[in-house]
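User: Hi! I have a protein structure encoded as tokens and I'd like to know what sequence might fold into it. I'm fairly new to this, so please keep things simple.
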């Protein structure tokens, strides 16, 4: 954070750690390839994946109902009611008992991250709520710096899988979609993280993500390409017509430029848009205190 953007201690209570939190100086833990198993076996990561697996199982247990309308299957409301009832219990399986007081606050972001039960829609605001959920877990110390790779490529990726299943099963409407002029009907963050994953790739360039063969051969390893595959499965017609923004991005010469552009676009199209941020909730972990200049 720039010097001029720091908050004064008197204005920022959210940075005060839990009284019982123990701190250590971070150090490297991944020294060899076999050490990669350490982050894969992180207890918090595995508990979060288990939580998401539970949400996935509830979809199987709540099949769509017959209804005249093609979109917005009302069975979603039954599924959501289950989450609404059990959210705090689910979060409690991830949060240690000495941090139990944080559970009700953190659980709100989990409930906000799966769509709206009234409109039966889902969009980037709900996706942002899941990022906030993960951020809260970081702030209270459940997730750590050495979990950062797994947070994106295990937890967030599993979240994406569950959200795609929700969208397909209950035919959820895109919330605030810009149609062909938007990046994607439902997601944004995986394009940012996915493009960063591909920076300096030895042979995959931005132009390749509109190549069906390249996508089919590499989507399991790269988040960005998995997003492209899902779009092509859900939409018909020429890619340049149904996903014009992405088609234009494929002409950018490097993944680093794609990544930089997407970050600017996310700030402008999501974080600074009233229709998105009006639904975001603030608490002690993520307060709305303005940044003060020194």
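Assistant: Happy to help. Inverse folding works backwards from shape to sequence: for each of the 294 positions I chose a residue that suits the local structure. Here it is:
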């Amino acid at each position: 954070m720039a010097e001029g953007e720091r908050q004064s201690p008197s204005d920022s209570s959210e940075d005060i750690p839990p009284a019982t939190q123990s701190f250590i100086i971070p150090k490297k833990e991944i020294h060899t390839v076999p050490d990669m198993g350490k982050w894969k076996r992180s207890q918090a990561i595995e508990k979060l994946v288990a939580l998401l697996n539970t949400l996935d199982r509830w979809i199987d247990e709540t099949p769509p109902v017959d209804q005249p309308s093609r979109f917005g299957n009302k069975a979603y409301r039954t599924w959501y009611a289950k989450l609404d009832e059990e959210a705090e219990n689910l979060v409690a399986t991830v949060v240690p008992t000495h941090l139990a007081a944080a559970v009700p606050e953190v659980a709100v972001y989990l409930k906000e991250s799966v769509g709206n039960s009234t409109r039966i829609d889902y969009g980037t605001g709900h996706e942002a709520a899941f990022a906030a959920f993960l951020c809260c877990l970081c702030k209270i110390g459940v997730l750590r710096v050495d979990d950062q790779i797994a947070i994106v490529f295990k937890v967030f990726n599993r979240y994406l899988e569950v959200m795609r299943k929700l969208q397909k099963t209950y035919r959820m409407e895109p919330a605030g979609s810009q149609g062909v002029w938007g990046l994607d009907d439902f997601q944004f963050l995986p394009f940012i993280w996915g493009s960063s994953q591909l920076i300096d790739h030895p042979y995959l360039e931005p132009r390749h993500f509109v190549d069906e063969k390249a996508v089919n051969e590499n989507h399991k390893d790269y988040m960005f390409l998995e997003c492209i595959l899902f779009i092509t499965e859900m939409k018909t017609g020429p890619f340049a017509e149904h996903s014009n923004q992405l088609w234009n991005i494929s002409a950018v010469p490097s993944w680093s430029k794609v990544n930089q552009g997407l970050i600017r676009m996310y700030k402008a199209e999501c974080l600074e848009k009233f229709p998105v941020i009006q639904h975001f909730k603030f608490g002690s972990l993520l307060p709305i205190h303005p940044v003060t200049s020194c």
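A useful reference point when you look it over: Strands lie at 121-122, 173-174. Feel free to ask if any position seems puzzling.
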